[in-house]
Design brief:
Number of strands: 6
CATH architecture of the domain at 28-99: Roll
Strand content: 25-35%
Number of helices: 3
CATH topology of the domain at 28-99: SH3 type barrels
Largest sheet: 6 strands, antiparallel
CATH class of the domain at 28-99: Mainly Beta
Structural class: alpha+beta
Strand order of the largest sheet: 1-6-2-3-4-5
CATH superfamily of the domain at 28-99: Ferrous iron transport protein A (FeoA)
Length: 103
């Protein structure tokens, strides 16, 4: 089954359903929004307790800087966090909420 990649603006419209628009700039940015070579700081980990435990076990922690090494738009992606390289799928990347001025 192929997943259709949804861009940040499409997720934004889902996020604001029925509400006054929160403006795209205020919508959360996830690791799935980054492209190869971009860096950002991890703000927090979403998607529940088991997801957070899995990410912490891999060394993906809030406050750490992550960099996208390479990956496909809708497939697995190689990231670097604290000098560790980890391969994560697109759905897992979308659970990592980021912060920073340059994203």
């Amino acid at each position: 089954m192929r997943h259709h990649w949804r861009g940040r603006s499409e997720r934004h419209s889902e996020h604001c359903q029925g509400n006054e628009c929160c403006e795209l700039e205020k919508c959360p940015v996830t690791a799935a929004d980054l492209r190869a070579g971009q860096k950002a700081c991890i703000a927090h980990l979403g998607r529940g307790r088991s997801f957070r435990a899995r990410m912490l076990g891999l060394g993906v922690r809030p406050g750490a800087e992550m960099k996208i090494i390479n990956g496909a738009v809708n497939g697995p992606c190689l990231i670097e966090v604290n000098r560790r390289r980890v391969m994560l799928g697109h759905e897992m990347l979308s659970g990592i909420i980021l912060e920073g001025e340059n994203i």
